[in-house]
Amino acid sequence: MTDAATPPPAAPRVREERPHPQVARIVLARPEARNAQDTRMLYELDDAYMRAMQDDDVRVVILAADGEMFSSGHDLRDRYPMADFDQRGTWSGYDLPGAEGWWATERELYVGLCLRWRDMPKPVIAAVHGKVMAAGLMLAWPCDLIVAADDTLFSDPVVAFGVNGHEYFVHPFELGPRKAKEMLFSGGSVDAEEARMLGMVNHVVPRAELDSFALDLARRIALRPTMGLKLAKQAVNQAMDLQGQRAAVEAAFSLHQLGHSHNRQRFGKLIDPSGVSVVREGR
Ligand code: ZN
Fold first, then answer.
1. Separation of 257 CA from ligand 1 center, angstroms?
2. In this predicted model, what pLDDT tens digit does every residue of 49-79 receive, in sequence order?
3. Which pLDDT tens digit goes with each residue over 94-139?
4. How far is the CA of 228 from the centre of ligand 1 (A)?
5. What crossing angle do the helices spanning 245-267 and 99-106 adopt, rounded to 10°?
6. Cα(122) to centroid of ligand 1, in Å?
7. How many other CB atoms are found less than 10 A from the CB of residue 232?
């Protein structure tokens, strides 16, 4: 969510670095728009992830961000047509009328990409700072580890928009059911230290040490054999699946589409317009 003007279409949204021979660092590079995620950023991020996955020299990936905050969420001013990009999933019909077109769009861009990233075989560390709002969480939560600067605030205020939460609905698994409900109902933030105590964040570090801490952690992980790392990641992710995480995400995504459909019928928009001022003013 941002009011910032959309920069020229040619501006890259993501930067790729190699701070260590076995560590790829991917940086959200749209600070002038508070790293709001438009369609272009999502596909550039997916491209960068795929290059890191396909490069056998890369053992660990870090996802970080330029500017004052990690990400303010989806760019509500995004007007890119889906036809401008090569889709990653099997759905289509993004312009179909009724609920069908938007369901397909969010399946491809949001829940589809998040599940794809969550299932990548190599360890990914999110290094977050500032605000991680709404869909900002959808970039951090599919990662395996999260290191947060001590100024980080996590929130998902989109219940104010008449939906259940953002599209990759793992809130109860990340925060526990009660804190998830409080975050969703109140639109309030969870700070870095509280997130660490809840098990959502691995480490909280001073802002100035975020990059070096994440790189040191990545270098330690990179000493392990890729086979062991893949097995460990699969074992944990499968344990989450056996607890119902994936089915819960799919069920919540259906409710999310019900919310959009309701808002379309009531307000002619995907979101309840009364929520915009509530979220903007932090009420
Ligand atoms: Zn949505």
1. 7
2. 999 999 999 999 999 999 999 999 999 888 8
3. 999 999 999 999 999 999 999 999 999 999 999 999 999 999 999 9
4. 37
5. 140
6. 28
7. 13
**Contact indicator for 270, 260 with CB cutoff of 8 Å:** yes
> Residue 6: which pLDDT band, with cuts at 50, 70 and 90?
low
Given phi > 0 = left and psi -120 to 50 = alpha, else beta, which region is 162? Answer: left
Nearby residues for ligand 1 (ion, Cβ within 5 Å): 106
Q: Which residue has the higher pLDDT, 215 or 78?
A: 215
The pair of structure tokens assigned to 174 is: 């990340």
- 239 CB contacts (<8 Å, ≥6 apart)? none
φ/ψ of 153, rounded to 5, equals -125, 125
Q: Residue 3: its pLDDT value, please?
A: 53
Q: Ligand 1 centroid to 263 CA: how many Å? A: 11
Q: 56: CA distance to ligand 1 center in Å? A: 35
> Which tokens sit at 283?
């009420």
| 3-state SS string for 150-185 | CCCEEECCHHHHCCCCCCCCCHHHHHCHHHHHHHHH
What is the whole-number distance in angstroms between the Cα of residue 260 and the centre of ligand 1?
Answer: 7
What pTM did the predictor assign? 0.95
Ligand 1 centroid vs 103 CA: distance in angstroms?
8
What domains does the chain contain, in order, with CATH numbers? 14-280 (3.90.226.10)
Q: How far is the CA of 77 from the centre of ligand 1 (A)?
A: 14
- Beta-carbon-side half-sphere exposure of residue 34 (alpha carbons within 13 Å): 19
